[in-house]
Amino acid sequence: MASYEAVIGLEIHAQLKTASKLFCSCPTSSGAQPNEQVCEICAGMPGALPRLNEKAVELAASAGMALNCTVNSYSLFSRKNYFYPDLPDGFQTSQFSPPICEGGYLDITVGGNTRRIGITRIHLENDAGKCVHGQGLTLVDLNRAGMPLIEIVSEPDIRSAEEAAEFMRQVHAILTTIGACEGNLEEGGMRCDANVSLRPVGERAFGTRTETKNLNSFRNVQRAIEFEIKRQEAALEDGEPLFQETRLFDAVRQVTQAMRSKEDAHDYRYFPNPDLPPVLVSEEQMAVWRAALPELPAPRLARFMKEYGLGREEAAALTADKAAADFFEAALQSCMQPRRVAGLMLGEFLRECAAAGIAPFAARMTPERLGELAAIIEKGLISPRMAHDIFPELFASGASPEQLAAERGLAQLSDAGELEAVVDAVIADNPAEVAGYRSGKSKLMAFFVGQIMKRTKGKANPTLVNELLQKKLL
Question: What predicted TM-score, i.e. pTM, was given to this entire model?
Fold first, then answer.
């Protein structure tokens, strides 16, 4: 990549968190049998007239506000014409010009460098159905047809696969924070198409671009783009032609493969949908929606760093999920030791939540219990190692950490007089090691700590042990 620059733009599709579909009252819940959540409208029956879901408009506008876009007071739905078996109308109802939101941006930080990525537009559209292939048959399930989507189209401002993954990660955090999207990537609740081209460094004209479709994880976004950059670079170096085409990513083989030639906007023959009136949003309504926005991930990250003294990585990990950030701040009500609570959240609690497949506030361990655990560590009642050992049981039961530690006899030995006697005994029993330490073999400190821990069955307060040893081994 010494002589070429990557030019990358993303198209992120996010399913909106509404109770019903975009143009009908069919439910959006998952788990139904095939074609169980279908009516005349989302099945594309002749004469069935769509009616716009107002909640979808609110969520789309809120997403635009959170992404620094202009929310248009007037937007239109158009028919985007193409033919797939799972597209019952024979067209997709989408917004072309004007969309509901345009002209936004998002600042991302990668490798300590912050860059501003432009957002061209956000538009509303309905989803297609799903083709199920197998046993020589292709079956069509229309439960997904008509699901409300927004498509977030970035400017071609992204310059690396890592930046692309971070951009998608930040969009995901924002949409889930404001409640616009569930964000279940594995289930298709959010997916991404990546447009990639290369050009010589210093050149302003764009190269031939490809679009890799339906990337459904941050890792796959990064890996697919990394492969595509290498593939295009090799072709350019060898003088091979590149074609504007749609490609798919094979996550097992870690390669992209050609699918079909790439369509442009004019190929879809957009025209205004005559069955839907213009979308009108008043300034008063926009003000209400803007006032309802919660604290967004970026300002919350900055506040966590300033107010709680957290590092960027810690703050970013906590604020990537609103529920995790809320849980963290609730736990601080029981123990105002932010670094200790953050360590327990990131090192133990969120890992247990992920393993159990539950959200933070669905765990039996409450914020108060997590704060209590942090507090007894800070007081020296138990050691961090003891906390680690009993954490799975605390998480599963929701029990009081202090009470459980007492029942297990885990109270940390922090009595200075009692510990001093143990330290004196260890020093007296190991004269050769004492002489070695005093002659400059500082690594022997670990030996003395280990002997003391052995005699106290791991209950000695390590901080106090080190203080006593340093004092007595002078």
Answer: 0.85
CA distance 41 to 142: 11
Phi first, then psi: what are they for 401, rounded to 5°?
A: -60, -40
pLDDT (mean) for 152-179: 97
| Rounded CA separation 286/62 (Å) | 8
Mean residue pLDDT across the chain: 93
Whether residues 299 and 361 share a domain: the answer is yes
Cα–Cα distance measured from residue 453 to residue 441, given in angstroms and rounded to the nearest whole number: 20
Q: Does 277 sit behind a cis peptide bond, omega within 30 degrees of 0 on the bond before it?
A: no
How many whole angstroms separate alpha carbon 281 and alpha carbon 290? 13
Looking at the DSSP assignment, which residues form a beta bridge with residue 114?
Answer: 109
Q: For 221-238, how does the pLDDT look when each residue is reduced to its tens digit (9 = 90+)? A: 999 999 999 999 999 999
State whether 261 and 332 are in the same domain.
no
In the chain, the number of structural domains is 3
**More confident call, 440 vs 327:** 327
Judge contact between 46 and 210, C-beta under 8 A. no
Residue count of the chain: 474
CATH code (residue 447)? 1.10.10.410
Give the separation between CA 160 and CA 7, rounded to whole angstroms. Answer: 8
The string of pLDDT tens digits covering residues 328-363 is 999 999 999 999 999 999 999 999 999 999 999 999
Regarding whether 316 and 228 lie in a shared domain, the answer is no
Residue 1 scores a pLDDT above 60: no
- Report the greatest alpha carbon distance in the chain: 96
